[in-house]
Amino acid sequence: MLLTIDLSSDQPIYMQIRNGIVTGIASGQLQDGDALPSVRTLGAEIGVNLHTVNKAYKLLQNEGFIEIQRSRGTFIKAGNAAKSAADFLQTSGDQLRAIVSEAITRRIDRAVLHHMIDHQYDELEGNEP
Amino acid sequence: MSGNNLIFICTYILVACLFILQPWFSRTNVLFGVVFGDEAIWQHAQAATIRRRYLIEAISTALALLLILFILPFFLPKGTVTAGFNITLFALFFIDSFIFVLANRRTRILKHSMVPSAQLTTDKIIVEVGKSDRESVLSLRWFLILIPLFSATLAVVWFGYPYMAESIPTHFGIAGPDRWVPKSWHSVLSPVFIEMLLGILILFIRRAPASVKGNPNAAPGYARYRKMMGIFLIVFCLLSELLFLLIVIGFITPVRTLLYIIVTLVDLGFLTAMILLYNRFVRSKRATGPILDDDDKWIWGLFYFNRSDPSIFVEKRVGIGYTVNMARPIAWIVLVGIIAIAIVFSR
């Protein structure tokens, strides 16, 4: 799976790594048991500090998307994330509220926002729109 | 002309040829350390002029110094010819590097005068995830094969010390050893330390990133090439270990010169194979997709300086092999350490 990092983006690089891997899992490009490169290798490939990659991996581990095994490496284990779906819905409520608020202030129709979400679902799940 | 002078001249010609031809040992979208969108730059008329000028300047310097090398033995007192050779070689490195830097500047000016390539980017990098280190990084198990010969050399030095001659050979010419120093732990341990140094250096390049980045196809097949290069260097190190083992055995009992020559020739054969490997797996590959325009991280196209890159060693932008990331203090420590050990134990 290819991960694109925008070095000039306002979004921190560790978040871009985290989001990229979550997107990979959602689209099926990364599946349970797939190995990820080590912190050192990924840091060297992107050309970023090891702490940046470490931060992304720790976040993914805490969120239940990956498993870090000390001597064997890092692996996708999205099953853990499914278990904490209720937590996700609770924590992402604020982010969703901010997006909906902005949509309302910009007079964007509810149906358009719904369509956008459906489109993202279709794209990641590989369904024809 | 003595046998040793002949060796000096041959070594000089070989080193000069490899040094002058360095710009041709780079990826096809790199010219004098400057990265371009594709390999079309090698067909550009102005780039051809820069290359021609570089060749004329570098070859003239090498020939002038070769002439000095020829007449040097007639003017220098006996015993100082080696020092004269080393100074000539250093002058070649220094002057030809300066000529390279001038060519790098001309190439940068040429790049700025051209329409920016759509393939070059300064802020996007695409990396492959979903691959473990096992697939892309040489396993540490490969290094285990270096241990038996290293241990054997150390054991011969350790247990054989009382039986060693009072004079230890430190330099070998065509006719065998031609320079000796009094026996000491320092002189007999030199081969062991040089072996260790070689092994440590190979360990560092396991994760060295490619000199051109941007996406996995900016340096196609690089991870495979890096693994092959690592195995090649381990075999080279193994042969060097064998050579050093013969040398330390030679401290105790005479070893036939032919054996040294055979191992040295096989070692040189491996160096030649490394050039062929480079041409087959690096030079012949075409870069595609977005390519990171990071010329500002390559000072004069020779020295890599990138604060955000955690790598200590990276692939050289020009020439076969690896260089250090000057922005990392540990790289300086490694570099100074290598030079210090090499100086202390080659004396």
From TrEMBL, chain A:
PANTHER family: GNTR-FAMILY TRANSCRIPTIONAL REGULATOR (PTHR38445:SF12), HTH-TYPE TRANSCRIPTIONAL REPRESSOR YTRA (PTHR38445)
Keyword Transcription: yes
A Pfam family matched in the record: GntR
Name of the protein this chain belongs to: GntR family transcriptional regulator
Residue intervals of the HTH gntR-type domain: 11-79
Listed CDD domains: WHTH_GntR
Source organism per UniProt: Sporolactobacillus kofuensis
Keywords noted in UniProt: DNA-binding, Transcription, Transcription regulation
InterPro entries linked to this entry: Tscrpt_reg_HTH_GntR, WH-like_DNA-bd_sf, WH_DNA-bd_sf
UniProtKB/TrEMBL annotation, chain B:
Every DUF1648 domain range: 152-193
Origin organism lineage: Bacteria, Bacillati, Bacillota, Bacilli, Bacillales
Identification of the protein by name: DUF5808 domain-containing protein
Keyword tRNA-binding: no
Residues in coiled coil: none
Mitochondrion keyword on record: no
Domain DUF5808 intervals: 308-332
Keywords: Membrane, Transmembrane, Transmembrane helix
